[in-house]
Specification:
It holds the Pfam family Shikimate_DH. Involved in the biosynthesis of the chorismate, which leads to the biosynthesis of aromatic amino acids. Catalyzes the reversible NADPH linked reduction of 3-dehydroshikimate (DHSA) to yield shikimate (SA). It comes from Hyphomicrobium sulfonivorans. By secondary structure, the protein is of the alpha/beta class. The protein has two domains: 126 residues, Leucine Dehydrogenase, chain A, domain 1 (Rossmann fold, 3-Layer(aba) Sandwich); 138 residues, 3-Layer(aba) Sandwich (Rossmann fold), CATH 3.40.50.720. Helices cover 38% and strands 20% of the residues. Strands 2-1-3-5-6-4 form a six-stranded mixed β-sheet, with helices on both faces. The chain has a six-stranded parallel β-sheet with strand order 9-8-7-10-11-12, with helices on both faces. Helix 8 links the parallel strand 8 and strand 9. The chain is globular. The protein starts with a strand and ends with a helix. The structure holds 2'-monophosphoadenosine-5'-diphosphate.
Length: 275
């Protein structure tokens, strides 16, 4: 039996076991996927002893993604650019790591709005943490000409521009509505709106009608940002799709089957969020 898990601190909230459990059952795979609470002081030891514990790999969530990145022996480009890893697997006794946030975000965006690049405005990103870095990288890889980053703490946005070069431009957080009007995509990567907490205060009046508005927050599924964008007649992309799609590469690595993000899986996770 192949065993995988997700580690974090705390870990109770993780929906990853539901996602992977659904796929294991769907494909009749003799495997398991559990959640394990691992305290910060114990992460290094836990990851170094994955083989002895009988795991073929694991997901890593907050606050362990950076240490997982530094401990892995082989790191894929997608993790290197973010400086954090969320998916680990063993090849022999060597520990490999990647970050599947870029894949998860870009896959779902293209699934929901295949023509998101139809008009040539900039991509506007709210926030400058790890998720922002993964998403900026995704857009640059796709060939977007300008990515604007807005962050409450401007230095963190500047660090992203320094890393990725002149296609990334830093804008004032206070100017986030006005400077996003010509956007082809606007993305919230901050935690603002999670469980109804706070408002990003984006005024969609005057936005390009082709702008796609997306949020990586998925609790609630319809955040204030998404609701406001819908009211303004804009197309929207929720945050749940990124969560579901980012899980695909890990499952394939560990269990040897590339799983599908089905409507039924989505329904189950929504039921869990709403339950
Ligand atoms: P992650 O790695 O998940 O992206 P993070 O590194 O903690 O998380 O980044 C969180 C992001 O949300 C940051 O851009 C943060 O802004 P600061 O860099 O100024 O801290 C942003 N954020 C969190 N709370 C916010 C709030 N109330 N208003 C605006 N931005 C907020």
């Amino acid at each position: 039996m192949k065993r995988a898990c997700v580690i974090g601190w705390p870990i109770e909230h993780s929906r990853s076991p539901l996602i992977h459990g659904y796929w294991l059952a769907q494909h009749g795979i003799d495997g398991s996927y559990t959640k394990v609470a691992v305290a910060p002081d114990d992460v290094a030891q836990f990851l170094r002893t994955l083989p002895e514990q009988g795991f073929v790999g694991c997901n890593v969530t907050v606050p362990h993604k950076e240490i997982a990145f530094s401990i892995a022996e082989e790191v894929e480009e997608a993790a290197r650019v973010v400086g954090a890893a969320n998916t680990l697997w063993l090849e022999g006794d060597r520990l490999f790591a990647t970050n599947t946030d870029t894949y998860g975000y870009m896959t779902y965006l293209s699934h929901v709005v295949p023509d998101w690049l139809a008009h040539d405005g900039p991509v506007c990103i709210l926030g400058a943490g790890g998720a922002a870095r993964a998403i900026v990288y995704g857009f640059l890889e796709t060939g977007v000409e300008e990515v604007r980053v807005f962050n409450r703490t401007r230095e963190r946005a500047e660090a992203i521009a320094d890393q990725f070069g002149p296609r990334v431009k830093v804008f004032d957080w206070d100017n986030r509505s006005d400077a996003s009007r010509d956007a082809c995509v606007l993305v919230n990567t901050t935690a603002v709106g999670l469980k109804g907490n706070g408002s990003l205060g984006i005024d969609f009046a005057g936005f390009n009608p082709d702008c796609v508005v997306s949020d990586i927050v998925y609790v609630p599924l319809e955040t204030q940002l998404i609701a406001d964008a819908k009211s303004a007649g804009l197309r929207t992309v929720d945050g749940l799709g990124m969560l579901l799609h980012q899980a695909v590469p890990g499952f394939e690595r560990w269990f040897g089957v590339r799983p599908q993000v089905t409507p039924e899986l989505r329904k189950r996770i929504i039921a869990d969020i709403e339950g």
